[in-house]
């Protein structure tokens, strides 16, 4: 049991050390960068990123929206502090899709922004819908009601093809879906590596093919530190404080480091975790001759029936010198890392490093991460540290992140049958009616010029244009000045 663990650990470290992180010291600018302000006729800026209108006829950057019966909706009473993208939404009464052109195959970040509001004739708190991204079900029977702040769903998905199709589908004909804003952008190349450590009980194995899983961000936590907003993150993520997850322990303390975080090639890059994450941590330390007999533990509620990617961020900002910090890492009570010595990996202090583990939840739907002294820990030193935790859900065997139905089944659940047989009849009746109206007008001879080129539908006119397929022609590359 010991030998595989050691081998795996070593090969993993080897991998980490030699992964090229060419982006370490430059600010990240994604090749594909589609930011969409849904249901709005004007663009919006959020943290100096431009979200383009999906409803501007003259704008070649609008993504295709191959849908009838979508409704652009504006909040009549927007909250003054709310970013502009949340003041509008596009409502879907039938399955509808956005199609984005992809120039850079590989892992992409997809973010869906939801902040329901009540407009004159529709309350978005009552929406109920499914969302598919290419072949993956990312949300099913999804509702978002009465949330105080916007809900942002974030996914990491590998796109091979040159198109990303995001489908919104009401759960039933009398339901509807909505979205306020969409982001589809290239992820930094070193953000998701293909290999992780698979924890199976007390055993570890190598997990390959991580990049080909669809991942959903469940938790992204800045241990011991403040919230980090998209403005202060290298790839516009949000990191929340760990207080809600940490089981308080009087033997642990928070620390803050004001020096420079030493990003190096082979370690975690600034895109993997910004300075704000690595310059704070929680530690267990022994102040006298005895090593504390305690762990620091974080608990994260998760849904059973999925694998999770647990990414732990470490940066020794606490030790006085190299080689003094040894500790154990446990996930769900199983040893994930024994006698971890960060300095043997980074060869310097304040240099960040991360480790990826693939695990299941325990039987209570909880993921427990613990860090504590190992039997190589020393007195009068730091005996455990953690700077950040990310927990991402992996798609299940049917390619879903939310439920047991595959994308094909979800699509087929739309009552096409009744619609299909009804539609020709309705169309014929409409056609006959409109012809008779036309004939009547002509015979009455009022001289009115009646434009009657298509069947009447309840599509607002400005959406009809979306039925001609058009792809976004241009990509906005947001080059933001980094103040880090
Ligand atoms: C949505 O919920 C209904 C009722 O609970 C269920 O029958 C259906 O399978 C769910 N749909 C998906 C896509 O999970
Ligand atoms: C795993 O290790 C723990 C002690 O660390 C032990 O109690 C447990 O029985 C082991 N489980 C298996 C499946 O070997
Ligand atoms: C970014 O970080 C700085 C320094 O901690 C902080 O003062 C500022 O409020 C942050 N900005 C945002 C938008 O979070
Ligand atoms: C060391 O300090 C801890 C508290 O920090 C205390 O509980 C323990 O008794 C001390 N041990 C010795 C040997 O002084
Ligand atoms: C730390 O946690 C692990 C896993 O839950 C457990 O085996 C170990 O006994 C704990 N150590 C202490 C000192 O509580
Ligand atoms: C450290 O602990 C492991 C089990 O966790 C044990 O096999 C090993 O003998 C211990 N090493 C020392 C030096 O006590
Ligand atoms: C996730 O979906 C892919 C297919 O897109 C599949 O190969 C993979 O096995 C799925 N992951 C899991 C953990 O079942």
Helix content: 10-25%
The total number of structural domains is: 2
Instruction: Give the rounded overall mean pLDDT.
Output: 82
Structural class: mainly beta
Q: Looking at this structure, what is the CATH superfamily of the largest domain?
A: Galactose-binding lectin
| Number of helical regions | 6
Cα-based radius of gyration, to the nearest Å? 26 Å
What is the CATH topology descriptor of the largest domain?
Jelly Rolls
Q: At CATH's second level, what is the architecture of the largest domain?
A: Sandwich
- Strand count: 29
Q: What is the CATH level 1 assignment of the largest domain?
A: Mainly Beta
How large is the share of residues in beta strands? Answer: 25-35%
Please summarize the sheet with the most strands. Answer: 13 strands, mixed
First CA to last CA: what distance?
Answer: 43 Å
Subcellular location: Membrane
Domain Malectin-like: 36-393
Protein name: Malectin-like domain-containing protein
GO cellular component, one term: membrane
